[in-house]
Amino acid sequence: MKTFLNNLLKISLYGIWIFFIYLLVLITLQYIPIDFEAAFLRTKTDEIQHLHYQIAFFTHVYSSIWVMIAGLFQFSTYIRRHYPMIHKWAGYLYIGFVLVLACPSGLVMGYYGNGGISSQISFVLLSILWFYFTWMAYYRIRQKNIWAHQKFMILSYALTMSAVSLRLFKWIIVSIWETAPMDTYRIVSWLGWLFNLGVGWVVLYYLGKRKEV
Question: Which pairs count as long-range contacts for 73-82, CB under 8 Å and 24+ apart, including other chains?
Fold first, then answer.
């Protein structure tokens, strides 16, 4: 019975995970083909005039969705045990896209973040930590330190999922408190990734406890 409930919980979590990725795919499709006046870019009428921002924005949008999908293959014990090459190459895709494309472009976008200096500091800090955790995950696996690799991958993917949590918290806050748009954005710019990072540390704590048993 316990095994059945554990499997049901895993399937449910993966289902929710995939559903949120599906929603982000729909958001990404708004920018195909490239449209400088689509969705979020309506709030960036000045920034989008600059070529470096255009490159950063579309690089971030088009690469981040692949980062999220590749991450799905990193946390499946079944795939890791039975299809290690899928796990390995999905990991290379994840790390490469984060370090080379998604994170540097996110840093540029963070510099121009809506909501003023508070949001900008938050997004820049998010990008720096995202790069660091991802690089350390790669560095540790090269050292054959599996546990350290797993820890940094969990923290890295927690920040990857801030794309989901930011939008989720924004919807919750607006639905309950009806705060002003920029006030909401300042709140979720921090809450969206700090909450995920907290969840990541809780997961690591319990995984560490299990390893001690």
Answer: 74/153, 74/157, 75/153, 75/154, 75/157
